[in-house]
Design brief:
Elements: H1 17-65, H2 70-85
């Protein structure tokens, strides 16, 4: 019985060129995916700081809009006066 067991390593054929190309291509694809995931994660923390700056810019824009607010009211008064004159 001890003679029946074959404990030698199995014979593995050498990988062909296509198999090795596929293996390295898969590794490169995995590295590329990791880089893409990191590119999404890292700038998101930087864009958070940019979002804090943006509300200040919109406040400046709101201040510029405030003087324009009374203008439509003046136009309405002019229209009402012109209607009264007719």
């Amino acid at each position: 019985m001890p003679g029946d067991l074959d404990l030698s390593p199995p014979e593995v054929p050498e990988p062909t060129f296509l198999e090795s190309l596929l293996r390295y291509g898969l590794f490169l694809g995995a590295v590329f995916q990791l880089i893409c995931i990191l590119a999404v994660i890292i700038p998101s923390s930087k864009s958070h700081h940019e979002q804090e700056v943006e509300p200040q810019d919109t406040r400046v824009g709101d201040q510029a809009r405030k003087p324009k607010g009374p203008l439509p009211q003046i136009r309405q008064k002019v229209k009402k006066e012109s209607k009264k004159k007719k």
